[in-house]
Structures are given as structure tokens and as C-alpha cells.
């Protein structure tokens, strides 16, 4: 009986020790989980009472019209002269009823409120702007006019003859004869590829005839023939 009592006491002591260890471990884990991470950055909240906070400064009001530029997708060469078919945006500052978009008519004229018909062909955008300003100054006080070329339709060339897609093509970027032939879809049957030529108006008003031998150029010979087209050129494929 004495040995059994001693064994029971030892068993109870061991069990109590295990329970205490479990409680101690649980308490330590709970405190660690609740403690803030020392390495974690704390969010900084704005202090509404702080005087060091940066504040946006409103821009001063101005009566100066915002600058207007030609669309980036359609850059114009320096000194560009307005031609028939071009589309213009005429803007009169603070005069919405006088501002409008117009196309250049076949007679080279445009029509504007309070101005009437005015010739635009042969003028640069700045020259036309000055003429419109001068006309409006007769009825308005200090008119501020801006002229923007919206689309260039007067810069074009014509390709005709034995090609798949003859017609007029825009010339708003550099185009060689080979480029133009590719854009036209290529040759039809029986096209005379060695006798292609360009009809071009010379400065003296006479018409030039510039020959192009397609067979030579594609073989790398006489590459100087592959010239850039100019506005109003006619490319003929006999």
C-alpha cells in the first residue's frame, strides 16, 4: 500500500508540472502576439492643426487667351501655304459665335461671320490670321484671332495608268516613287515598268517629264531615279 500511495503522489506532481508549463507557454505566446512589431513602420496621419502642411496656391486669374498650336498628329512645314481643300479652325477669343471650322472652297475663299468672303489660298496661317484680325477690328475692340490648319488636303499627288489603285494620294510625309507604286497596289498586266514617268510643273510654268525605270531601281541600278514626289505631281504608269 505504501508504494502505491507514493506512486500516486509522484504522478500528481508530474501532471501538475506539465499543466503549469502549458499555462506559462500560452500566456507568453498571447503577450507576443499582442505586442506591436518594433520593425514595422507606423502610419503617419496628417495633423489638421499643423501649420507646416503644404497647401496648394491657386493660380492667378488671367484674361490672356491660352496659346493654340497645330495638332501634333499633323505637323506643318515651316512657311506652309494654305491650299484648296485644307480644313481650318478659326478661333476668335471670347467670341464663340464668330469661331468656326471651315474648308477652303475650290475658288480659294472662306466665309466668316462679320467678315464675309476672304481669300485664304496662297497665304500662310499667320498671314490669314492677320487679315481676319484686320477685318474684325472694324467692328470689334481688339479682336484676337488664331488660325489652325486642321487637315492638309491640298498636298497630294496623282497616280494613273496600269496600277491597281489609281487616284489622288495625300502627301503629308516624304514619299518616293517606289513608295507611291507600293501604295497604289502594284502593276496591272502589261504595265510598261521601264517607261514610268512623272509629270511635274517646272518653276517657269512648263511641264517636265521625269522618267523612272522600275526594273533598274529594284536591281540597285540608277537609284537616283527614285526621287521624292512633290505636291501636284502626276505619276504615270503606261
Description:
The strands form three sheets. Strands 7-6-10-8-9 form a five-stranded mixed β-sheet, with helices on one face. The radius of gyration is 41 Å and the shape is flat. Helix content is 24%, strand content 21%. It is an alpha+beta fold. Mean pLDDT is 79; it is low at 36-46, 50-62 and 64-73. Among the domains are: 87-151, wza like fold, CATH 3.30.1950.10; 156-237, Outer membrane lipoprotein wza domain like (Outer membrane lipoprotein wza fold like). Strand 6 (156-161) and strand 7 form a beta hairpin.
Task: Please supply descriptive tags for the structure shown above.
single chain; wza like fold; three-stranded antiparallel beta sheet; 238 residues; Outer membrane lipoprotein wza fold like; alpha+beta
Short description:
This protein has 238 residues and is of the alpha+beta class.
Helix content: 10-25%
Strand order in space, largest sheet: 7-6-10-8-9
Can you count the beta strands? 10
The span between the termini is 131 Å
Provide the structure class: alpha+beta
Number of helices: 4
What is the makeup of the main sheet?
5 strands, mixed
Oligomer: single chain
Task: Label the overall shape.
Answer: flat
CATH topology of the domain at 156-237: Outer membrane lipoprotein wza fold like
> Which CATH class of the domain at 156-237?
Alpha Beta
Instruction: Report the CATH architecture of the domain at 156-237.
Output: Roll
Tell me the series of helices and strands, N- to C-terminal: HEEEEHEEEHEEHE
- Radius of gyration from the alpha-carbon trace, in angstroms: 41 Å
> How much strand?
15-25%
The CATH superfamily name of the domain at 156-237 is: Outer membrane lipoprotein wza domain like
- The mean pLDDT is 79
Amino acid at each position: 500500500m505504501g508504494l502505491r500511495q507514493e506512486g500516486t503522489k509522484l504522478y500528481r506532481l508530474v501532471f501538475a508540472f506539465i499543466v503549469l508549463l502549458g499555462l506559462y507557454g500560452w500566456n507568453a505566446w498571447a503577450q507576443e502576439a499582442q505586442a506591436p512589431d518594433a520593425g514595422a513602420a507606423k502610419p503617419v496621419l496628417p495633423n489638421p492643426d499643423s501649420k507646416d502642411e503644404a497647401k496648394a496656391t491657386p493660380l492667378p486669374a488671367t484674361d490672356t487667351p491660352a496659346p493654340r498650336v497645330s495638332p501634333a498628329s499633323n505637323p506643318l512645314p515651316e512657311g506652309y501655304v494654305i491650299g484648296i481643300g485644307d480644313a481650318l479652325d478659326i478661333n476668335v477669343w471670347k467670341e464663340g459665335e464668330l469661331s468656326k471650322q471651315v474648308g477652303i472652297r475650290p475658288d480659294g475663299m472662306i466665309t466668316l461671320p462679320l467678315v464675309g468672303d476672304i481669300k485664304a489660298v496662297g497665304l500662310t496661317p499667320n498671314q490669314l490670321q492677320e487679315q481676319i484680325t484686320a477685318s474684325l477690328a472694324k467692328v470689334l475692340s481688339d479682336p484676337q484671332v488664331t488660325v489652325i490648319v486642321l487637315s492638309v488636303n491640298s498636298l497630294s499627288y496623282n497616280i494613273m495608268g496600269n496600277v491597281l489603285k489609281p487616284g489622288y494620294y495625300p502627301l503629308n510625309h516624304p514619299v518616293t516613287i517606289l513608295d507611291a507604286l507600293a501604295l497604289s497596289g502594284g502593276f496591272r498586266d502589261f504595265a510598261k515598268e521601264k517607261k514610268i514617268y512623272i509629270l511635274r510643273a517646272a518653276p517657269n510654268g512648263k511641264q517636265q517629264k521625269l522618267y523612272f525605270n522600275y526594273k533598274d531601281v529594284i536591281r540597285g541600278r540608277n537609284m537616283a531615279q527614285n526621287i521624292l514626289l512633290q505636291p501636284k505631281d502626276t505619276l504615270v504608269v503606261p
